[in-house]
Design goal:
Rossmann fold, four-stranded parallel beta sheet, binds flavin mononucleotide, de novo design (two linked rop proteins), alpha/beta, four-stranded mixed beta sheet, 37% helix, Ubiquitin-like (UB roll), binds iron/sulfur cluster
Length: 456
């Protein structure tokens, strides 16, 4: 099968069997079926589904929910790791805030990432339940699932689940007899990576061009249509029901003594591994453990480098496989957890070609607002193309380093540019010799076959 709806069967699949996944240790995936089929409303209800909504909406205040989420210290699973509870507490500022919006970020366009898709396609009611609880905490009047446009199957499954939830009284007026009203819809994006940035997403939702907004004001204070708006990742929201049922201490101990960050995490691996897929594991699991679950590197190749969580994270080396993959530790090696889905690079793969490919993606997806991102990223592509063709000029590597530094944290309006810079900076640092091999000319000598301006 080809076309937009095509998906390789082995992606978006949890590769642990049902007897390895238990409610106490695998809050995100214990209900999933081994054959990857949908967990429908009846199956979900039979396995504690909507119990948290029933209890919390009738017995807790919104502030209680926020306090519990703060205590659990759930780091956002969209990549930045910001505390969900802290974010939610922003909607309380000023006391009498108007009812606003809850947005689930399901844009999932990070290269190498396919975790949210699993949750949406196989267990949509967990996301819906998590969103009802988040909406209750933040007094949101309406919710949107901002979904990557190519996720046609996710849209179909979510639409059906929303209809069922509405008919069963879990959405709409007076949910579970609590007096709380809330409903939501799926909103499909038109296929831009920048729409995943939370303020660009809000602009896109409003029908505007998807440029990030200046912060402050933060969306929690003034977001969609000027109302308090909470944006959270799919996986973050899916953690909520179990935290409210079992408590923050239970959530914290899920990661044991691996890390200070609590909870479990959907980790995964793709690229040249024997079993690409996903596993729900304790937060702080190492790359080594994940690669073992992925059956090791394919065809007896040798690992050269790996990205821990998507294209916008920094390259790590084989010696970093023992680092706990949490919100802190990869940072000490110039990388970050990102989405937690590993991409492996083997010895026979060219770092120069790989970087040219990645920077082409980042250059194309820039919204064009800030100079280092709009003009700097296409420049990196031109330099990388020249080096890849063996026609690099002396000084090109230093220029690449400068262009990456110009895109560093806080130098641009949003985190797209730092995300593009991190793999480039780490690739140059760890694999400089590969880039040097493509330098063949002294500075100022013209290319034999100049690369046309605007060719990227
Ligand atoms: C260029 C760019 C793309 C992003 N794409 C996504 C995405 O697809 N999904 C996502 O959840 N977060 C994405 N983010 C992060 C969001 O801006 C935001 O931090 C996140 O949705 C907040 O949710 P969380 O706190 O639950 O992680 C992206 C950020 C940037 C800069
Ligand atoms: S960093 Fe790039 S994507 Fe982000 S606002 Fe600036 S130009 Fe746009």
């Amino acid at each position: 099968m080809t076309g937009r709806n095509h998906r390789p069967v082995y992606y978006s699949r949890i590769l642990q069997s049902a007897n390895e996944r238990r409610a106490e240790t695998h809050p995100l995936t214990w209900r999933l079926n081994d054959d990857g089929s949908l967990v429908g409303l009846q199956d979900y209800l039979a396995k504690e589904g909507y119990r948290a909504v029933k209890t919390v909406l009738n017995e807790w205040s919104g502030q209680d929910v926020i306090a519990a989420m703060k205590e659990a210290n759930v780091g956002g699973r969209g990549g930045a790791g910001f505390s969900a509870g802290l974010k939610w507490s922003l909607t309380l500022q000023g006391g009498d805030m108007p009812r606003g919006y809850l947005v689930c970020n399901a844009d999932e366009m990070e290269p190498g990432t396919f975790k949210d898709r699993l949750l949406m396609e196989q267990q949509p009611h967990l996301l819906i339940e998590g969103m009802i609880l988040a909406a209750y905490a933040n007094n949101s009047k309406f919710g949107y699932i901002f979904l990557r446009g190519e996720y046609v199957e996710s849209a179909r499954v979510l639409d059906q689940a929303l209809r069922q939830a509405r008919e069963a009284g879990w959405l709409g007026d007076n949910i579970a007899g609590s007096g709380f009203d809330f409903d939501m819809v799926v909103h499909t994006g038109a296929g831009r990576y920048i729409c995943g940035e939370e303020t660009a997403l809000i602009n896109s939702l409003e029908g505007k061009r998807a440029n990030p907004r200046a912060k402050p004001p933060f969306p929690g204070q003034s977001g969609a249509w000027g109302k308090p708006t909470v944006v959270n990742n799919v996986e973050t929201l899916c953690n909520t029901p179990a935290i409210l049922l079992y408590g923050s201490d239970w959530y914290q101990q899920l990661s044991g003594d691996r890390t200070d960050d609590g909870g479990s995490k959907l980790y995964g691996a793709s690229g040249l591994v024997n079993r690409p897929g996903l596993w729900e594991l304790p937060m702080g699991t190492t790359g080594e453990e994940i690669l073992e679950l992925a059956g090791g590197i394919r065809n007896n190749r040798t690992l050269k480098a790996w990205l821990p969580g998507g294209a916008s994270t920094g390259f790590l080396l084989p010696q970093h496989l023992t680092i706990p993959l949490d919100f802190k530790n990869p940072g000490s090696e110039g990388s970050r957890l990102g989405t937690g889905l590993l991409t492996v690079v083997t010895e026979d793969q060219s770092m120069v070609s790989l970087m040219r490919n990645l920077e082409q993606f980042f250059a194309r997806e820039s919204c064009g607002w800030c100079t280092p991102c709009r003009d700097g990223l296409p420049w990196t592509v031109k330099l990388l193309q020249a080096i890849e063709n063996g026609e690099g000029e002396e000084g090109d590597i230093e220029m690449l380093e400068k262009l990456a530094a110009d895109c560093g944290p806080s130098l641009t309006f949003c985190a797209h540019a730092p995300g593009a810079a991190m793999p480039l900076e780490t690739a140059l640092r760890h694999f400089r010799a590969e880039f040097e091999q493509g330098i063949s000319r002294p500075r100022g000598v013209a290319h034999a076959d100049p690369i046309p301006v605007g060719s990227v």
